[in-house]
Design a protein that fits this description.
Elements: E1 3-12, E2 15-16, E3 25-26, E4 28-33, H1 38-41, E5 50-54, H2 67-95, E6 97-100, E7 106-117, H3 120-127, H4 155-168, H5 172-180, H6 201-204, H7 209-229, H8 231-239, H9 262-276, H10 282-298, H11 305-321, H12 323-327, H13 337-340, H14 345-352, H15 360-377, H16 383-411, E8 431-432, E9 439-443, H17 444-450, H18 456-467, H19 474-477, E10 486-489, E11 492-495, E12 515-520, E13 529-530, E14 533-536, E15 549-552
Parallel strand pairs: 1-7
Antiparallel strand pairs: 1-4, 2-3, 4-5, 6-7, 8-11, 9-10, 11-12, 12-13, 14-15
Helix pairs in contact: 4-5, 7-8, 7-9, 7-10, 10-11, 15-16
Length: 559
C-alpha cells in the first residue's frame, strides 16, 4: 500500500442571504483538494468542493464590553470554531488515513493544510496579524510602500511573540498591547492552526485577484485617475467610446456607479488606459500601465520564468512612476496593504501555481449552491438546520443520479452519447444563434453591398469547394454559378468563454461573461457595426501572437 500527500485548500467567506431587506448572512467553510485538476475543481457540477461547516454569525452581546473586548470575542470564537472543525486533520496529517482512490487502489493519504483562501480582513484574522499589516511578512504598517519584501512570518515567530508577551504581562490589555507592538493580534492566545503538521499558515495565505487586485488596487487607481483628470472628463471620454466586441459601453460613465462589482471592474480595466492618454501626465499613464499589466499577467492560467519576469517588470514600472501621484497631491504615501500584497504574488505562484487554482471567485460561486439555495428552501426561521438537511438531500440525490448514469453507461453503451448536440467553436465552447435569421432570403449582391464585402461570392465558392467530396480545380471554381441566389443572414451570435462558474453565468446567476459578436449593416440612419474577430484556425496557435489564427478586420466586412 503506497502513501501520498493530499494538499488541503480551505476557504472561508461570509455572504449575505437576503438582498434588499433583512440582515441574514451565512459564514460557510469550504474544503477541496489541491491535487485535483483545476478544470474539475473549479466546476460546481463536479462536486470537487464540499461544505464542511457554517461558522457562527450571531452577534455577541455588547453589555459591559468595550469595542476591544468585542473584537477579541469575535476572533476567539472564530479560532475556536476552526480548531474544532479542522482538528481531525492534525492526526490524519501525521499518521495518514487509508482511502480508496479513483482507480480503486487503497493508499495511505496524509492531508496537509496547504492553502487558505480568504479576503484581506480574514487573512489577518487567520494569520493572527495586526489588521493593516501584511499577514505573510514582518513589514510594519508604516513601511508597506517599501518595494522590497521584509522577512517572512512563520508560525514559530508568531508563537514566540505570544509566549513572550504572556510571560512579561499580567493582564489582557497588557498582553494585547505587547503583541500589537510586534504587529501580532493580541486577541488570540492559541490560533487554530497551532500543531498542524508541515503547515506554515503565513505561506498558505494565497493571492486574491478579485478583492486585492480589482476591488482593491484597481479601485484605488481609478479614484486617483478621476482626481488627476476630473470625474466629468473621464466620464465624457468613456461615453464617447464606440461600441465594440468584448467591451462594455458605459453610456453614463462610471462615476455614478454606487457599488462597482467585480465584473464591472474588469470591464472598466479594459478601457481605462486609453481614456487617460493625452489628458494626464505621462507618469500617470506609465503607472496605470504597470498596474494593469500586472493585473492581467497575474491572471495567466500558466506561468514560466518569462511571464514571472514580465510581472516583475510591470510592478517595477509602477514603483518607478508612482511618485507622480504624490507630486499631484493625490497621495501622501503608498502604505496600502493591498498594494504591498503585490510583492508576494510571484512567490505564491511559484509555490502554488497559477492564481486560478485558488481564486476567491471560485468559492464565491459556491455560495449559490451551498448557502443561498438552501436559504430559499427554508422557512427563514432557525434556518441553518434546515439548510444542512436540504444540502444533505441534494448531495444524496446527486450521488444516486451519478450512480444510475454510470450503471446505464456500463450496461448499455451508447456510441452517440458523446456527440455534441450544439454548435461549438474550436475551443469547445457552445455557440448560440437566433432561431430565425435576422435577414431571411437576402440576395448575395445585397449582402456584398450592405456588409461592404465585395469578395464574399469568391470566398464562399472557395469555401464550398473545399467542403466538397470531389473538389474542382481552383482555376474552375469561380466560373461555376451558385446553386442558389439568396442566403439567410444572421447579424449576431453569442458564445461563452471558459468560465469559473460552469457555464451558469455571473456570480449573481445572470448571463455572466457571455459575449455577443455583431455584424449589423446600417439601417434607418443607424450606423453599421462590424465587430473585429480572431478565428482560431488550428491547435498550434500561440497566446502571444497571431500565428495559427485567421484575423478578420471586421466580421463580414473589410478594413
Amino acid at each position: 500500500m503506497g502513501s501520498t500527500v493530499a494538499p488541503i485548500i480551505i476557504a472561508t467567506d461570509k455572504t449575505h442571504l437576503t438582498q434588499f431587506s433583512g440582515n441574514k448572512s451565512a459564514y460557510p467553510v469550504y474544503l477541496t483538494l489541491g491535487n485535483l485538476p483545476r478544470a474539475i475543481r473549479r466546476k460546481p457540477s463536479e462536486h470537487a468542493c464540499i461544505l464542511i461547516a457554517y461558522l457562527s454569525v450571531d452577534k455577541i452581546r455588547r453589555e459591559k464590553l468595550t469595542k476591544q473586548d468585542q473584537r477579541a470575542r469575535y476572533q476567539r470564537v472564530f479560532h475556536e470554531s476552526m480548531r474544532r472543525i479542522l482538528d481531525p486533520l492534525k492526526r490524519a496529517g501525521k499518521d495518514g488515513v487509508e482511502m480508496v482512490g479513483g482507480d480503486r487502489a487503497v493508499r495511505k493519504v496524509h492531508p496537509i493544510l496547504a492553502s487558505y483562501v480568504a479576503d484581506f480582513p480574514e487573512q489577518c484574522l487567520v494569520a493572527c496579524a495586526k489588521y493593516g499589516t501584511c499577514p505573510k511578512c514582518q513589514c510594519p504598517a508604516n513601511k508597506l510602500q517599501d518595494p522590497n519584501v521584509a522577512d517572512p512570518r512563520s508560525p514559530q515567530w508568531t508563537d514566540d511573540i505570544c509566549k513572550a508577551a504572556s510571560a512579561s504581562t499580567n493582564t489582557s490589555p497588557q498582553f494585547y498591547a505587547e503583541c500589537m507592538s510586534h504587529d501580532v493580534s493580541g486577541f488570540v492566545h492559541k490560533p487554530f492552526w497551532h500543531g498542524f503538521p508541515y503547515t506554515n499558515i503565513h505561506d498558505s495565505i494565497t493571492p486574491d485577484v478579485l478583492h486585492q487586485l480589482y476591488q482593491g488596487v484597481f479601485k484605488h487607481l481609478v479614484s486617483w485617475c478621476q482626481i488627476s483628470m476630473k470625474k466629468e472628463e473621464l466620464d465624457a471620454r468613456i461615453r464617447t467610446l464606440p461600441p465594440s466586441f468584448g467591451i462594455r459601453h458605459f453610456k453614463n460613465g462610471i462615476s455614478g456607479l454606487s457599488q462597482v462589482s467585480g465584473t464591472e471592474s474588469k470591464a472598466i480595466a479594459k478601457i481605462l488606459l486609453g481614456c487617460l492618454v493625452g489628458k494626464v501626465p505621462s507618469g500617470v499613464v506609465r503607472a496605470a500601465r504597470g498596474i494593469l499589466d500586472f493585473i492581467y499577467l497575474a491572471q495567466y492560467t500558466a506561468h514560466d520564468d518569462h511571464t514571472l519576469k514580465y510581472m516583475k517588470e510591470a510592478l517595477k514600472l509602477f514603483h518607478e512612476n508612482r511618485q507622480i501621484f504624490v507630486t499631484l497631491g493625490i497621495r501622501d504615501d503608498f502604505n496600502i496593504p493591498k498594494f504591498h500584497s503585490l510583492l508576494h504574488y510571484i512567490t505564491s505562484i511559484e509555490q502554488f501555481g497559477a492564481t486560478d487554482n485558488y481564486n476567491t471567485e471560485m468559492f464565491e460561486r459556491l455560495h449559490i449552491d451551498f448557502a443561498k439555495k438552501g436559504w430559499r428552501a427554508s422557512n427563514s426561521r432557525n434556518e441553518f438546520p434546515q439548510m444542512i438537511r436540504w444540502l444533505e438531500r441534494q448531495e444524496k440525490t446527486a450521488c444516486f443520479e451519478n450512480y444510475l448514469d454510470t450503471m446505464k453507461a456500463e450496461r448499455h453503451p451508447d456510441p452517440g452519447r458523446n456527440i455534441q448536440q450544439h454548435a461549438r467553436n474550436f475551443a469547445g465552447q457552445p455557440i448560440q444563434i437566433a432561431k430565425k435569421p435576422h435577414s431571411p432570403g437576402c440576395p448575395i449582391p445585397t449582402i456584398e453591398r450592405d456588409h461592404n464585402c465585395p469578395f464574399f461570392s469568391r470566398d464562399l465558392k472557395d469555401y464550398l469547394n473545399a467542403l466538397s467530396s470531389n473538389p474542382a480545380p481552383a482555376k474552375n471554381v469561380q466560373s461555376k454559378p451558385f446553386p442558389f441566389d439568396k442566403l439567410d443572414v444572421y447579424h449576431m451570435f453569442k458564445f461563452a468563454p471558459t468560465s469559473l462558474d460552469d457555464g451558469v453565468g455571473e456570480i449573481d446567476g445572470g448571463d455572466g461573461d457571455r459575449q455577443t459578436v455583431r455584424a449589423v449593416p446600417s439601417k434607418g440612419g443607424k450606423p453599421a457595426r462590424f465587430d473585429t474577430i480572431i478565428v482560431l484556425h488550428n491547435a498550434d496557435a500561440e497566446a502571444t501572437g497571431l500565428q495559427g489564427v485567421y484575423s478578420f478586420i471586421r466580421l463580414l466586412g473589410t478594413g
